[in-house]
Write a structure and sequence with these properties.
4 copies of one chain form a homotetramer. Chain A has 148 residues and is α+β, with helices and mostly antiparallel strands. The first copy, chain A, has one domain: Hotdog Thioesterase (Thiol Ester Dehydrase, Chain A). Chain A contains 4 helices and 7 strands, in the order βααββββββαα. A 5-stranded antiparallel sheet of chain A has the order 1-4-5-6-3. Chain A has a two-stranded antiparallel ribbon with strand order 2-7. In chain A, a hairpin with a 5-residue loop joins strand 5 and strand 6. Strand 3 of chain C pairs antiparallel with strand 3 of chain D.
Chain lengths: 148, 148, 148, 148
């Protein structure tokens, strides 16, 4: 489980005066990329090896509106893992008072760039992720996370 | 049921070489706004009356990668309607060959701008939407749409 | 000189209630890409050949605010051309009444992807662009365009 | 003069493999908003008082490509100030080695939201900004900044 902190930008708002709902999806990505970085996965090396990791499914439950200037925490953990896919769960909270503002999940599938067929993650990268996944399984904080 | 056509822009891609997955969520909005416009709902008038319509839930199933330069059709219909909420379903297809590239759904909840409490759509606007919803219910093309 | 038409999207607005000013820069790109397409330049083929075309300079003069739902025309022409660079000029107008809403310019430099050094466009692609550039030079409509 | 730090996000890249050039314009905004916040200017209060501050001019010189994962510093200072407008200058550098990656400038004009006419900043807010502007004038680090 990792947490990243973001400060909401003016350009992330829309004319309703709150954050546009596509940004929660982008913040999930920020947290997921940081999780992978901390796990030791190099996305450039994956892509140089011809592997991409497109999103196959996203869902997000928007619980409270997020405003310009809010400081938010995006927490993520691995909910499912195989050599062909990763499912991450997310929670976005207001740093000031802990209010949960959104929850969600994403599924990435490893894919051969050249023809779009499903790829299997190499043994070394998979071992790194599996270690993190097992730590997440043991973590009581992730057990109770809703996955929107 | 309405369909809008978009030509995929360069800035909508990411370094994996395909469309970034937040754009499908944005295209759903383009289609939803056009549906509301054709239904006779004026979003400026709603907002001037103190009503906003934030998204409460989004989901998207990404079936095929979308590329720069693709011409896509985004089809949407009202899947559920009450005076407090609208649920839309979506399908994104490649215009050239009809391949389905994504499906999804969104839930909007009518909300009082001043305090964030749930609002009820006024009778006139609701009647306009209800008429469209009933046409969608009778449309055999929307019945079979997966809602990702 | 070519013109593309866009309908302003809800997600392109910000909490000031108007289009966020980064979108004019993105619309310039939409027009530039369409210009290149009509000129017979294939951006995928360029990139497959190891050539990228990053932006080196952008400027934009914002003359009138652009609103959600506006239909806009983005007109562009080649202002300068060499085998190493392209300078495009732009004008964004309101389709309804012709009001000029923004003007601007961009400079792209052809670059070798592998090391970032300046590249020279191949003879065939350059000839295609030169033909368009010469037509733009003769066009009285582009002569008077401000380049913001 | 203030500096904000950003870590480049995956979604900020495009299919050329580098940051899309509209993001530098957005990062200028992040720095400008932080400058205003540190100066004691409350953008919500301004807007509640019927004043908006749309961008009238932007320019950016792109010196080096910015990549996913880079940590960048965005430095900004007030280059010109009156009660009707603010001109900010910017420099984006790579935190690791100090390489300058972009420079730029923006002009905001204070505007009455209701009719789009030019507004004049209230005395209290103007005094706060003027104090910062005078500090910037005295700062030898801002004197030498190119304003792209």
């Amino acid at each position: 489980m990792i947490t990243v902190i973001e400060k909401v930008r003016f350009y992330e708002t829309d004319m309703m005066g709150i954050v546009h709902h596509s940004n929660q999806i982008r913040w999930f990505e920020v947290a997921r990329c940081e999780y992978l970085r901390q796990a030791g996965i190099d996305l450039f090396a994956l892509m140089d090896g011809g592997i991409t990791f497109p999103i196959k499914h996203v869902s997000c439950e928007y619980i409270s509106p997020i405003n310009y200037g809010d400081t938010i925490e995006i927490t993520t953990y691995l909910h499912k893992l195989s050599r062909a896919q990763m499912v991450f769960a997310y929670r976005i909270s207001n740093q000031e008072d802990g209010t949960v503002m959104a929850t969600g999940m994403t599924q990435n599938v490893f894919t051969h760039k050249k023809d779009g067929t499903v790829a299997r993650l190499d043994t070394e990268a998979y071992a790194k992720l599996k270690k993190c996944y097992e730590e997440d399984l043991k973590n009581p904080q992730t057990g109770g996370m809703s996955i929107g």
